[in-house]
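Re: beginner question about structure tokens

> Can someone show what the tokenized structure looks like for a real chain? I only ever see the sequence side.

Sure, here's an example I had lying around. Input first:
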Amino acid sequence: MKIGEIAKLVGLTPKSIRFYEATQLLDAPFRQKNGYRQYTQAHLQTLKLIKRARDVGFSLEECRTLISLWRSPCRKSEDVNKTILQKIELITQQINLLTEVKATLTKLSDQCPNNQQSTCPILSELLK
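And the corresponding structure tokens:
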């Protein structure tokens, strides 16, 4: 498969695929004499894993870990699950932080008279 074909199958852009190659997240494909990349089923599977993992919020390094686990004949499902649970914990921490930020911003907004005056209690509070 050429880069355009595999990109269409996976739902990625050729630029993304070249980026994954450059960062060594994806093994470099065989190059034909004309310089075109020739992708295999293994590339297709790896790209599907990357795409899905990225879609659910995994970073490039986390994708690297998942790919390593996927390729390892010695992997244990508990190792894969541990990776997922770590991601869930990180997301939970981010949700908690964003909830706190939202509460603070809501409190600031509630203090604002929302009128034509130049004094702004929001800015005053942010300057503390």
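Each token stands for a local structural state, so reading them left to right follows the chain. Residues 76-111 form one domain.
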